[in-house]
Amino acid sequence: MDFKTESKAASDHIDVLKEVPVEAMEEISEEYRAIEKRLVRKLDYTLVPMLWVLYLFNYLDRNNIAQARLNSFEDDLNLKGNQFNIAVSVLNVGYMLMQLPSNMLLTRTRPSLYIPVWAALWSIISASTAATHSFRQLIAVRFLLGVAEAPFFPGAMYLLSCYYTRKELAVRTALLYSGVILATAFSGLLAAGIFSGLDGVHSMAGWQWLFILEGSGSFLVSLVAMFILPDFPGANTGSAKWLLTEEERRISVNRISRDRVSEKTIDGSVWSGLAAAVKDIKTWIFVIMLTGNHSAYGFNNFFPTIVKGFDLGNNTITLILTAPPYLLASVVAFAVALSSDRRKERGWHMSAPMVFSCIGFIISVATLNKAARYTAAFLYICGCFSSNALVFSWAANTLSQSPEKRACATAIINLLSQLGNIWSPYFFPKSDGPRYVMAMLLMMASTVISMLSAMLMKFLLVRANRKLKADGAEQLFTL
């Protein structure tokens, strides 16, 4: 496959490197593999950790409003009725509106600048929450924060899919996603420390310090990211300029070219990529799959309340007890992703964890035993996060007929699946506490929808692989 065909976005803004006989290098397989191994190792030590730290702050800056509520946030801003709920929800409006246009634009930019610039913007906007004094100001800041944060995750997934092959991507996606899990585990404890140590310092409330400190931290990380992130494969800009050799840049293009499935030729325009993504039924199956998954972990915003209902101790003990399930989930998600990559299989690896989630939800409904319900929380948290980490890598690899289609498809999937995050909070009316039977049943149903979608996708890909084999194609879909 031609260099410009595979990486047209990169060649739009860099000088194409001089022709290097990569094919000749492949004839000396040991040399080629050694260079490829060195390339992957360099990416693992720079690209993945940098995106991981950015994603951790992305999630912290998005959700610190939940911890701020435990301080004097509502009183200081004079929030009434459901105004706090509106402020939480409006972020998703900006988030959904910006994702697709951002990923369409990403294919025509330099990721090493594009992603950090948005990170710097969301950091400033999040920190500016400390200066709000009214509901209207808060709404404006939260909407803009959603717009600024939206480009990161689909953009990060797209960039990973540009550098890692199908058999490598799941583990890196799981590592990236662990940033969210760990941010969830420690965000409450971090807020508790800030509230206890800085509340009232320099006449500022603890919640104001929370926004300022976390926003400042992510701003500093965004500056570092400009030097650590690479641009598209083959480009001699970004970190590739000092990190990769010419041979490694060439192989970064060649290895992905060989890994991609090409069902049909798609011209290189962004709009044709969008049209191809919309017309592909697999895009919409992934939308249903991930929406079901997001609906299933609607417990995420209410987990401290759920644990409080177990009546296992005071608020401090409750906060401590919320961390272990998420810490275990990060380990399990990585193990599942590693197994998925080694076996080159996605469908069963995504569905099996959801079975454990179902069991966890059933136990939560079936018993009042505190220990059993807390144990059940480990099951549904580990199951939901493990399967969610695989969806994006599976989608990016399956919908990869062109860079533009891959970018648009992953953005559509991530955008529409946010509906699960919008309606799942309504699973938890206060009157249903502390058991939240309706929520557990609805989340169980959501896991079933997600599993069925995964099995349908696996069936379609098995059929597509048979057709590719019949046509003599060497590249096959990951099932």
Automatic annotation (TrEMBL):
GO molecular-function terms, A-Z: transmembrane transporter activity
Location in the cell: Membrane
Superkingdom of source: Eukaryota
Keyword Acetylation found: no
Membrane topology: Multi-pass membrane protein
Record's keyword annotation contains Transmembrane helix: yes
Residue ranges annotated for the Major facilitator superfamily (MFS) profile domain, each copy included: 47-465
Keyword list, A-Z: Membrane, Transmembrane, Transmembrane helix, Transport
Alphabetical list of InterPro entries matching this protein: MFS, MFS_dom, MFS_trans_sf
Name of the molecule in the record: Major facilitator superfamily (MFS) profile domain-containing protein
